[in-house]
TrEMBL record:
InterPro entries: Gal/GlcNAc/GalNAc_ST, P-loop_NTPase. PANTHER family: CARBOHYDRATE SULFOTRANSFERASE, LD35051P-RELATED. GO terms for molecular function: N-acetylglucosamine 6-O-sulfotransferase activity. Gene3D superfamilies: P-loop containing nucleotide triphosphate hydrolases. It comes from the Bacteria. This is Sulfotransferase domain-containing protein. GO terms for biological process: N-acetylglucosamine metabolic process; sulfur compound metabolic process.
Length: 579
C-alpha cells in the first residue's frame, strides 16, 4: 500500500488536505489529528475535489479531500504541535504531517501583572482595594477597580492574529457597512490560499504566523507598561513590582496575560455557590432563574481553572479570607512574593459598600437563612461539581449523626493523606490506627456486599448500594472512617457521583464528588448501644454502566466509586484493630 497526498493547511481553525491509497484508490481513508500529544479527532478523506480525479487518474474517484475543524479554534496565545496521520499507514506520512503552530514571543517586562480572577460577588473588589494600599502593587482606577487592559488587548490580539473567517467574522466586502463600522474581526486576508501571491508561500506564512503576532504582542504589552508606568509615578510607586487587574475567566484573558508577560501571579477567588446565589439576587436584583443562569455560565469555568492550575496560580476561598484573614493573607502574599501589610488582618475593614450583608462575617453561610429549601436543592444539584471541587459540602441530611460528613478540600489532600493525627470534635485529637490499601487482605476484610473483584490499587462498587464493616475501636468515644477513592465519570453524561451514606441503616449524610477524594465519616458516638461492629452503606444513585454511555466500551459493570484506601481514626490509645 502507498499513500499519496498533501496537507494543504494546518491552522488554528482547521486541518485540510487530501490523501489517496494508490493501490486501492476507491477506498475511504481515515485521518487522525493529534494536538499537543492528545488525539483531537478523526475525519474521513471522502470529500470531492474536482481536480483530483483528473490529476490522479488510475481509478481515482476525486473523493479524497479531508477537513477537520477545531471547535473552538485553537488558542492563538499558545504554541501547538499538530500531527496528522492516516489509519493503517503507521510508517507513511503526508508531506508536512507534523506542524508547529507557533506562539508570539515577547521579552520580559520590568513590572509583572497580578491577576485577580473570578466571577462577580466573590470578593475581588475587596481584594483590589487592599492591593491598592500596598507599596509594591499599582492599581488603576477607584472602586470597583474595573480597568482591565490585559483583557482588552488580549481580545484585540485574538481578533487580529486569527485566520480569516469570512462567514462569522470580517468579510472584506462588508468592513465598513452597518455595525461593522465599529467592529474589527479576523484578518480576512490571513488564509493559506492567499499565501501563493508570492513564489515562496512559506515566507508569507512566516509573516502571518510569526512576525505579525510577535509584533502585536510586543506593542500591546508596551502600551500596558506605559499606562501603568504613568499610574505608578502618579501614586508614588515608581519602583512597584506588580500592577493588579481584575481578570476575566475567559481563556483569552488568562492566556493573553501569560503571553504578554512572564512571570504572572494569579489569585483565583472562589465562593460558596449558595452564597453567590444570595448575593446575585440581592445586588443585581436577579430572579432565581436569572441568577442560576448567570452562575451556570461561570462556575464550571472556575472549577476547570482550578484543576488546570499551575505554580503561578493560587486558589483563595472567600470564606477563608473572611474567617481566617491573617493566615489566608500570609499564604497569599507569600505566593505573590511580597511582604504582608500590617493592616491586612480584618475582613470587615475591607468589606465596605460593595457587600450585601451587614458585615463580612454575615456574608459567609447566609444561604442557610436567605434561601428556601427548594432553592438550596436546585443550587446544590446544579453546582455539585463546583461545590466539591472547592471543598463546600452539601447541606446536612437529617439523621442521628446530623450529617457529620465531609470531603477533604483538594488543597489539603496531600498533607491530609500523609498525616497520622487529625483534629477531632470538641478539640479532641484523633489518631490513625488503621490505614489499609487495596488489594491487601486487611483492606478486603472491610468489604461486604456490592463490590466487584479486587484490582491492583482499588475496588469498584458494582451495585446501587455497597457496604463496608467497621469494628468500633475498643475504648474509643469517637471514631472517624476515611474512604479514599475516585468516582466513575464519563464526560458530560456522568460528571460526578453522589454518595448517600448510612450507618447501621440510619441516614447519615450525602456528598458529591467529581474527582479523587477523601471522604470523612465522623462518628461522634456509637449509633447503637454497645455495638462493636458497624455497617456503613454507600448508596450510589448516579452509578452507570460504561457500555451504555460509550459504544466503544466493553465494560458492563455498574460503576460508581473506586475505593482505594480505608483509614480508621479514633481518640484515646486504641491499638491497631482488625475489621
Amino acid at each position: 500500500m502507498a499513500l499519496r497526498g498533501h496537507l494543504d493547511e494546518v491552522s488554528h481553525r482547521r486541518v485540510y488536505g487530501w490523501v489517496i491509497d494508490t493501490d486501492h484508490p476507491e477506498s475511504e481513508l481515515q485521518i487522525v489529528v493529534t494536538v499537543d500529544g492528545h488525539e483531537y479527532g478523526r475525519c474521513a478523506a471522502n470529500q470531492f475535489r474536482p481536480n483530483l480525479k483528473q490529476h490522479l487518474g488510475d481509478g481515482a474517484t476525486g473523493n479524497h479531500e479531508f477537513c477537520l475543524k477545531f471547535e473552538p479554534t485553537l488558542s492563538p496565545f499558545r504554541q501547538h504541535d499538530v500531527h496528522v496521520t492516516v489509519v493503517g499507514f503507521p510508517h507513511q506520512q503526508l508531506p508536512g504531517n507534523q506542524r508547529i503552530i507557533p506562539a508570539a514571543t515577547v521579552t520580559r517586562s520590568a513590572r509583572a501583572p497580578l491577576l485577580v480572577t473570578s466571577t462577580g460577588r466573590s470578593g475581588t473588589t475587596m481584594l483590589m482595594s487592599e492591593f491598592l494600599r500596598h507599596p509594591q502593587i499599582v492599581v488603576a482606577d477607584s472602586h470597583p477597580y474595573e480597568i482591565k487592559l490585559i483583557s482588552y488587548y488580549a481580545s484585540a490580539f485574538r481578533a487580529l492574529v486569527s485566520e480569516a473567517d469570512r462567514e462569522n467574522s470580517t468579510h472584506p466586502d462588508q468592513m465598513f457597512t452597518g455595525p461593522n463600522r465599529y467592529r474589527i474581526g479576523h484578518n480576512p486576508y490571513f488564509m493559506s490560499g492567499l499565501f501563493g501571491v508570492i513564489k515562496n508561500d512559506e515566507r508569507m506564512a512566516h509573516l502571518f504566523e510569526r512576525v505579525i503576532p510577535s509584533a502585536l504582542a510586543r506593542d500591546f504589552r508596551d502600551f500596558i507598561d506605559r499606562y501603568y508606568q504613568l499610574v505608578s509615578e502618579d501614586q508614588g510607586k515608581a519602583d512597584a513590582r506588580f500592577f493588579a487587574e481584575k481578570c476575566d475567566i475567559d481563556e483569552a484573558a488568562r492566556e493573553g496575560a501569560r503571553m504578554f508577560y512572564m512571570p504572572v501571579r494569579e489569585v483565583v477567588m472562589v465562593r460558596d455557590a449558595r452564597d453567590l446565589l444570595c448575593s446575585a439576587k440581592a445586588f443585581w436584583k436577579h430572579s432565581l432563574e436569572d441568577a442560576l443562569r448567570t452562575l451556570e455560565s461561570t462556575l464550571p469555568r472556575l472549577a476547570d481553572i482550578s484543576r488546570a492550575a499551575g505554580e503561578d496560580t493560587l486558589i483563595v476561598r472567600y470564606e477563608d479570607l473572611i474567617r481566617d484573614p491573617v493566615e489566608t493573607r500570609r499564604r497569599m502574599y507569600q505566593f505573590i512574593g511580597i511582604d504582608l501589610p500590617a493592616a491586612a488582618s480584618s475582613g470587615d475593614a475591607l468589606f465596605g459598600v460593595h457587600g450585601t450583608s451587614r458585615d463580612a462575617a454575615a456574608s459567609v453561610g447566609r444561604w442557610q437563612q436567605d434561601l428556601e429549601e427548594a432553592e438550596i436543592d436546585r443550587c446544590e444539584d446544579l453546582f455539585a461539581d463546583y461545590l466539591t471541587c472547592f471543598g463546600y459540602g452539601r447541606r446536612n441530611v437529617a439523621g442521628p449523626n446530623n450529617g457529620r460528613l465531609h470531603v477533604v478540600p483538594n488543597a489539603d489532600m496531600h498533607r491530609y493523606l500523609n498525616a497520622s493525627t487529625f483534629p477531632g470534635p470538641n478539640r479532641t485529637q484523633l489518631t490513625a490506627i488503621a490505614d489499609r490499601s487495596a488489594p491487601s487482605p486487611e483492606f478486603a476484610a472491610h468489604l461486604l456486599a456490592g463490590w466487584s473483584g479486587l484490582e491492583q490499587g482499588w475496588v469498584w462498587s458494582n451495585a446501587e448500594r455497597s457496604t463496608i464493616r467497621l469494628e468500633w475501636p475498643p475504648g474509643a468515644t469517637c471514631c472517624r472512617l476515611v474512604l479514599v477513592g475516585r468516582p466513575f465519570v464519563s464526560g458530560t453524561r456522568t460528571g460526578s457521583q453522589r454518595l448517600i451514606v448510612g450507618v447501621d441503616n440510619v441516614p447519615f449524610g450525602q456528598v458529591t464528588i467529581s474527582r479523587f477524594a477523601a471522604i470523612e465519616i465522623n462518628l461522634a458516638e456509637r449509633p447503637a448501644e454497645n455495638a462493636s461492629q458497624l455497617t456503613i452503606t454507600l448508596d450510589l444513585p448516579d452509578a452507570a454502566r460504561p457500555i451504555e454511555l460509550d459504544p466503544k466500551s466493553t465494560e458492563k459493570r455498574l460503576l460508581g466509586f473506586a475505593l482505594e484506601r480505608i483509614i480508621v481514626c479514633c481518640d484515646g490509645d486504641s491499638d491497631m484493630i482488625a475489621p
